[in-house]
Design brief:
4-stranded parallel beta sheet; single chain; two-stranded parallel sheet; alpha/beta; 41% helix
C-alpha cells in the first residue's frame, strides 16, 4: 500500500488478517528498497497492490513482477471504492465498520478490532455517504460507526443499517471508547 496516504492500508487490516499477510508500505512511483528487502525475505508467491495506478504506479507493479511474483491489484476509482473492493474481498456479511475516509485516527483506532473480527472497514465523507459505500452497506445488516459528528454526521449515520455509534469527546477518547465498547483485550504495562 502507498506509504504516504493512510486509507488503503488501514482499510486492508481485515484482509491482511484473513490472508495472514503483512501490510507493507511503499512509495507511489517506485518500490521502496526496504519494502523490496522485506518481500525478498518473505518470498511470497503473490503480492496484492492496494489502490489504483495513482496510488501505486504500474512501475511498482512491474518491479514486483520482475521479482517473479504474481501481482494482484484491488482498486477502485477513489479511496471509497477501493475500500468497498477490499470489503468485498474480505466478505460483506452481517456487519461493517464505517469511518471517515478523510482523516485517519478513527480508522486506526478500530483497525486492529476489524482485523481480529474480520469485519470490513468502509469509508465515508463527513457529510455525505459515497455511493460506493452506500452500495456496500446495503449488503450488511448492521454497522459500527466510529467517530463523532465532525467525522460522521448524523445525516450519514441515519443512512446506515442498524448503526452503532462509538465516539468520544475527541479522537483520544474515541480510541478509548473503541477498546471499551468493543471489549478488546488490554494488556497492563
Amino acid at each position: 500500500a502507498r506509504g504516504d496516504l493512510f486509507a488503503d492500508a488501514l482499510t486492508a487490516a481485515p484482509l491482511a488478517a484473513m490472508e495472514d499477510a503483512p501490510i507493507l508500505l511503499t512509495a507511489s512511483q517506485r518500490l521502496d528498497p526496504e519494502t523490496r528487502r522485506a518481500i525478498q525475505k518473505l518470498r511470497p508467491d503473490t503480492v496484492v497492490i492496494l489502490g489504483g495506478i495513482q496510488a501505486i504506479s504500474p512501475n511498482v507493479e512491474y518491479q514486483l513482477r520482475q521479482m517473479g511474483i504474481t501481482v494482484e491489484r484491488i482498486s477502485g476509482a477513489n479511496r471509497y471504492s477501493t475500500a468497498a473492493q477490499i470489503a468485498e474481498r474480505v466478505g460483506l456479511g452481517v456487519e461493517a465498520i464505517v469511518v471517515n475516509g478523510e482523516q485517519f485516527p478513527d480508522a486506526l483506532s478500530v483497525s486492529a478490532y476489524a482485523a481480529q473480527a474480520m469485519i470490513p472497514i468502509l469509508l465515508t465523507k463527513a457529510q455525505q455517504l459515497p455511493e460506493e459505500t452506500l452500495a456496500a452497506v446495503e449488503r450488511v445488516e448492521k454497522t459500527i460507526v466510529v467517530g463523532g459528528e465532525q467525522a460522521v454526521s448524523s445525516t450519514v449515520y441515519k443512512q446506515l443499517p442498524q448503526p452503532r455509534l462509538i465516539a468520544g469527546r475527541d479522537l483520544f477518547q474515541t480510541s478509548v471508547q473503541v477498546i471499551e465498547q468493543l471489549k478488546m483485550a488490554t494488556v497492563d504495562v
